[in-house]
Amino acid sequence: MKKYDDILIGSGPAAYKMSNLLAKTDRKVLVIEGFEYGGTCPNYGCEPKIFLEGAARTVLQSQQLLGRGISQPAKLNWEALMQTKLNRFDSWPAETREIIKKTHDVEDGYANFIDNRTVEVNNHRYQADHIIIATGQAPNLLDIPGKEYLHTSYDLLSLKKLPQRIAVIGAGFVGLELATLVAAAGAEVTIVVHSDRALREFTTKEDEALVKAMKQRGIRFSFNTETQTVAQGENGLVVTTDHGEIQADYVLAATGRHPNIEKLGLENTDIKYDRHGIQVDGHLMTTVNGIYAIGDVISRKQPKLTPVAEFEGQYLFDYLTNKTEQKIIYPTIGQAAFTFPEVARAGVNADEVIDDSQYQVKTVSLKYGSLYAGQNDQISTLTLVFKDHQLVGVSEVGDYAADDVNNFLPIIGLDISGAEYRQKVMTIYPTLGDKVAGLLLP
Ligand SMILES: Cc1cc2nc3c(=O)[nH]c(=O)nc-3n(C[C@H](O)[C@H](O)[C@H](O)COP(=O)(O)OP(=O)(O)OC[C@H]3O[C@@H](n4cnc5c(N)ncnc54)[C@H](O)[C@@H]3O)c2cc1C
Ligand SMILES: NC(=O)c1ccc[n+]([C@@H]2O[C@H](COP(=O)([O-])OP(=O)(O)OC[C@H]3O[C@@H](n4cnc5c(N)ncnc54)[C@H](O)[C@@H]3O)[C@@H](O)[C@H]2O)c1
C-alpha cells in the first residue's frame, strides 16, 4: 500500500488549483483522474463554450445592426469554427496531465473507496493524511424511451457538422447558451421546457426579455412541456412531448447536472451525501475525518461555477497547510449566462425583496447610452438593489451584462459607499463603469 500526504480525486478547476498550490510544497501528492485532465471547464465547459461564442456574437451583433451601416450580416461556418476549436483545445488534457506529472504522481482511472481510509484505482491501493474528492458533476439524462438519442453538452461542443434541426430539452444555463450558439450558426432550434420559465436565478423580467429576444431570432420555446420519447422517424428524429411532436436531427439534453459520486464507492465509507452532492462542514471536511470535498461535487447553496471551485481549492490548501483555521467564507459571487443578450447577477435578487420596505430597487434602461445605441442594443436594463443606501444586489439583461455586472461586484463585496467609490476610483469612459458612481446614488 503506497502512502501520500494528499490524494486529489479529479483534476478539474477545484483539484487543479490545489495541485498547483501543493506543487510549491514538499508534500507527496497523488492525482487520480478518470477522464480528461483539467475536467469540465477547460475541456467541455466554460472555455470551449466561450471560444465558440466569440464567432456567434459577431454574427448576432451584425444581424442587430442590419440597416444601420451594416448591409450584410456575418455568416457562421460551423465546420471551420469547430476545426479552430479542436485545434486549440484537443491537446489540453494531455498537456494538463504533463504539468501535474512534473510535481506529483498521477493515476489514470476512476478512484474507488474501499473503506474510510483507502482508495483503489487500477488495482493499486493508496492511503493519505488527506483525501480530497473533487469529482465535479455530470449531465442528467432523462430516463425515457429513446434516451440513446440524447446528446450532452460534451457532444455538442465537439460536433463537427451542424445538424439542421436541433431540439434542446431544458432551458437552464447549458440549454440557453448552447441554443444561442447553434441558432447563430444557422440551426433551427426548439427548446422544450418542463416548467413555466427559463433561468430561475434571474428576475422574471430579465428572463422574459431574454426569451423574447431569442424568440425574435426564430428560436421556438415550448414551456410547461414534458418530453416523453425520442424515436427514429422517416425524416429524422421525432421528439414526442405532451404538447405534440418535434422533428429534429439532433437532441441536446440540458436537464441539469448531478454530482459525480456513482463511481466513488461511497457505500464502503461513512461519507454522507444528498442529491446535491457530498455533505461537508465549514472546513470542507466530509463526515469522515481526513476526507474533504471541493468543487461542484459538494452539496452547498453557492452556484456551481469554476471560480467557486477554485476558491474552495485555495481555501482547503490554506486550511490544510495551517495558513487559516477559519471556516470558509464565500465572497460575493457573480454569475452570467452567455446568451445574446446576456443575463448576469450578484447578491440580492430584486424579485425576492420587491415587497420588502427595507430594500430599494432601482431599474435603469441603458439603451440611451451611445455605447449601447451604437450596437442597437434596445434591451440592456440594469437593476440595482439597495439596503440602507448600500448596494446589495445587481443584475442586468443586455449585450454586455456580464462585464457590466462585474463593475458592481467590488462595491457589494467590499461594502463601500457610492461616495467612497467616487473618491477612490475613476473608470474608463465611455463604458458602463464610468456611470457606476452616479448609479449608486439612491
Ligand atoms: C457546458 C458548460 C458550460 C459551463 N460554463 C461555465 C462558465 O461559463 N462559467 C463558470 O464559472 N462555470 C461554467 N461551467 C461550470 C464549470 O465547468 C464547473 O463549475 C467546474 O468545472 C467545476 O470544477 P470541478 O473541479 O469541481 O469539477 P470538474 O471540472 O467537473 O472536474 C471533475 C473531474 O473529476 C473527474 N472524476 C470524476 N469521478 C472521478 C473518479 N471517481 N476518479 C477520478 N476522477 C474522477 C472527472 O473526470 C473530471 O475531470 C460550465 C459547465 C458546463 C457543463
Ligand atoms: N455561464 C455559466 O456560468 C454556466 C454555463 C453552463 C453551466 N453552468 C453551471 O452548470 C450548472 C448546470 O447547468 P444546466 O443548464 O445543466 O442546469 P440548470 O439547472 O441550469 O438547468 C436545468 C434545466 O433542465 C430542466 N429540467 C430539469 N429536470 C428536468 C426534467 N426532468 N425534464 C425536463 N426538464 C428538466 C430545468 O427546468 C432547467 O430548465 C449550472 O447550474 C451552472 O452552475 C454555468
UniProtKB/TrEMBL annotation:
Sorted UniProt keywords: FAD, Flavoprotein
Please give the name of this protein.
NAD(P)/FAD-dependent oxidoreductase
> Residue ranges of the FAD/NAD(P)-binding domain?
7-313
The keyword Phosphoprotein is annotated on this UniProt entry = no
Q: Superkingdom of the source?
A: Bacteria
- Pfam families reported for this sequence: Pyr_redox_2
